[in-house]
Write a structure and sequence with these properties.
The chain is about 40% helix and about 20% strand. By secondary structure, it is of the alpha+beta class. Bound molecules: flavin-adenine dinucleotide and iron/sulfur cluster.
Length: about 450
Amino acid sequence: MEQKNLVKKIFTEVINPGNCFHCGLCAGLTKNLFKMTDTNKGPIPKLIRKPHKNDISDLKKVVLACPGRGVPYNHLSKKLITSKKSKIIGNHNSSYIASSNSKLIRQNASSGGLVRSLLIELIKSKKVDYVCILDEKKNQLLNFDLLITKTVDKILNSSQSIYQTTPLLHKLNKLKKNKKYVFVGLPEHIASIRILKVKYPKEFNHIKFLISIYAGTNMYPGAVEFYLKGNGINNISDIKKINWRYGEWPGMLRIVTKNKILSLKKFYYNYLIPFFISKNCLITPDFTGELSDISIGDAWSPSLENKGHGYSVAITRTKIFDKILMKLKIKNDLYLKKINLKNTVRMHAHMLEFKKVGSYLRIEKLKKKGPVPLYDLEPQKISFLRKNIESLIGFIISVASNKSVKSIFSLINSRFLGFIFKIIRQIWKSITKPTKRKGLDNIKIISVKNKRVEEFLKT
Ligand SMILES: Cc1cc2nc3c(=O)[nH]c(=O)nc-3n(C[C@H](O)[C@H](O)[C@H](O)COP(=O)(O)OP(=O)(O)OC[C@H]3O[C@@H](n4cnc5c(N)ncnc54)[C@H](O)[C@@H]3O)c2cc1C
Ligand code: SF4
């Protein structure tokens, strides 16, 4: 009976109301109970057999760590021993701009190649035995899977940023307890593993380090087909190779097809976002991966962008990563410069506001329809203007994600759409910037109690 209730909880609170984060944890912690299945709304778990009594302890862990039920960030962030507190980027020690000095690493990097520099260092210094990263399956385009490897060449050649909802935790049971692992993931993956590490320290002690990449928006599958259609290609099997961040930073979408090579600058292909944005990235306040050991994103700033080259921003949350960064700097493997909190926030002010204020407003709206993920922090006061901006964002997304609208827009040339979108985005940013910036500067985030926090306090 208990097993049935636990499964029911996952379906009624997460999967049925569309709150699934596609993380794969339910498949990864149980024994052939769930299977992640592809849908046009991202990979969703499907129950593949009846639950038994033996499943109860696994199911309890899933219910506790499922990001679709929300994450008590305030409660959990106190478990990290950090020198600075922030409710905007999470508790942390320091922030840095970093860039790999290795041409080999940087040429295939999303930003400064910092993630792979750290992974290689962790393997070489034997701090871990294996790295767990998302990579494209061999000879299977747009088909991604968790790669567990210790081979430096494989780490070097792992995929760049994959802007597609993809499970990452579906192989958690396959990790060996007597080996040491580092996991690279999006904020929701990292939050899930952190919950398990906090609540079941002995059982998850083999996962030594958590590296989060910043995640603003992610997309459902179909974005590439949409882009191809806008270029007169109707068959996805015509693709031979795809890179989302090809060439000089910030890189471009580059697709090699049978007959031609298509490419579109990063800021142009952002036009795909309103059509394919996944719901999970609209209902999480976590942009940087606040429960990681180190968070890494693009170091957006006009002066660095003009230089090209490729720079990452990093936020350290456990001391060991400050030490590793210094070691790599001394060895001249890395360009490294400390920055303050103000600059760290400014670099991503728009997206931080989108998550800290916007996600709260979006969740408030969804609450009227059914269960929503519960968080233990919320903005205290939001202006009337900001609420109206959010309504407009919601309207644009709901129109753009409509099937018929998508099929009409898919016929328009992608370069033209990208160009128009870039201009609209710039105008939109300059109109909303004062409200959003003011909102972020004045924002007071307060902690709140709810059912989810209580679960953590009593277990
Ligand atoms: C969906 C998504 C949204 C993002 N949004 C932002 C943003 O708004 N602002 C920002 O500054 N940065 C964002 N990033 C992060 C950014 O694109 C880079 O990944 C980050 O700067 C690290 O770059 P790097 O050169 O140090 O990493 P690299 O050395 O190039 O290594 C990249 C690593 O990321 C892993 N990876 C790639 N895609 C995924 C994925 N989908 N899930 C889990 N692991 C993955 C790869 O396995 C690889 O290990 C986003 C990334 C993704 C995947
Ligand atoms: S969010 Fe993750 S754990 Fe929760 S139902 Fe979805 S795939 Fe399973």
